[in-house]
Design goal:
The chain is 50% helix and 12% strand. It has 291 residues and is α/β, with parallel strands linked by helices. 17% of the residues are buried. The protein has helices at 9-19, 46-65, 77-90, 104-112, 146-154, 163-167, 184-194, 198-222, 229-246, 260-282; strands at 2-7, 37-41, 69-75, 116-119, 127-135, 157-158, 180-181. Strands 2-1-3-5-4 form a five-stranded mixed β-sheet, sandwiched between helices. It has a two-stranded antiparallel ribbon with strand order 6-7. It folds into two domains: 2-155, P-loop containing nucleotide triphosphate hydrolases (Rossmann fold, 3-Layer(aba) Sandwich); 192-289, Orthogonal Bundle (Bovine Mitochondrial F1-ATPase, ATP Synthase Beta Chain, Chain D, domain3), CATH 1.10.1140.10. The protein is built from ten helices and seven strands.
């Protein structure tokens, strides 16, 4: 279920056009046959913008009660909150921070609390679920503004989009330092069936990217001439990790769906290569032998 909340009219028209050509990954059926699109453009009434989010989550609950797993994508809750602010102002209610209504946090909590997996009532044994994905558009990229701050307190997973990554055409443009998931502890048993080293590999990959970021700050201050082979190797290996593993294309048949076993083997191969290079450099082998 896609909710275009306060979107521009031409953007919604583009979404409707693109959806007609998309196919489901597990079959050749059109994606539109199992999708619901709620189009609420920016030139529609403010009340309709507020109602669009509730309409989408209610439709999702209908299919969840039928035993389906439903994904709700709301774009964006920031414009929905702006509608709440405008309606609250017209009703002459007491404003909160930045003019938003004082009940903004409770409204967001009511919305996100409707997600989850349930066993439905009735004679048939059915289990359905709702997964909510909401886009937030903080003005000026300010993560301390009320909508972003309240959402971060409620959501268990956060993907921070980085403008610099998008400018370099690195997609998905997800910042790997600011993004997080609080479900990793719950999923450890599932990932351990793939391999027991999964958690360690993820930690090693993050450590490599973090080390590269620290070296970038040093290079920006002093220059790249002071770097030794080991530090230059960190740059090259982090570049490989970003370009060969993190960089993906949702429109490529290989990247659109990747089995978890393949993902694990790709990451393991890159990090094994990292270990080999590091050991060779420590043994005195120059970096030019490899690049």
């Amino acid at each position: 279920i896609y909710i275009g909340c306060g979107e521009r009219g031409n953007e919604m028209a583009d979404v409707l056009e693109r959806f007609t050509h998309l196919k489901r990954t597990e079959s050749d059926h059109p994606l539109l046959s199992r999708s619901v699109l709620i189009a609420n453009t920016s030139n529609m009434p403010i009340v309709a913008r507020e109602a669009s989010i509730y309409s989408g989550i209610t439709i999702a609950e209908y299919y969840r009660d039928m035993g389906y797993s439903v994904a709700v994508m709301a774009d964006s809750t920031s414009r929905w909150a702006e509608a709440l602010r405008e309606i609250s102002g017209r009703l002459e209610e007491m404003p909160g921070e930045e003019g938003y209504p004082a009940y903004l946090a409770s409204r967001l909590a009511e919305y996100y609390s409707r997600a989850g997996s349930v066993k439905t009532l009735g004679t048939d044994d059915r289990e359905g679920s709702i997964t909510v994905l909401s886009a937030i558009s903080p003005p000026g990229g300010d993560f301390s503004e009320p909508v972003t701050r309240d959402t971060l307190q409620l959501a268990k997973v956060f993907w921070a989009l980085d403008f610099n990554l998008a400018h370099r055409r690195h997609y998905p443009a997800i910042d790997w330092f600011m993004s997080y998931s609080e479900y990793m502890s719950f999923l450890e048993d599932w990932f351990s069936h793939v391999d027991r080293d999964w958690k360690k590999l993820c930690g090693d990959a993050r450590a490599l990217l973090r080390e590269e970021e620290e070296l970038k700050e040093i290079v920006a201050l002093i220059g790249a001439d002071i770097l030794g082979d080991k530090q230059r190797g960190v740059f090259e290996l982090a570049k490989m990790l970003k370009e060969y593993f993190l960089l993906q294309s949702a429109y490529h048949p290989v990247d659109v769906y990747c089995p978890i076993q393949k993902t694990y083997k790709m990451l393991r191969t890159l990090l094994k290569f990292n270990d080999k290079i590091s050991n060779a450099i420590e043994s005195g082998v120059p970096l030019q032998k490899y690049w």
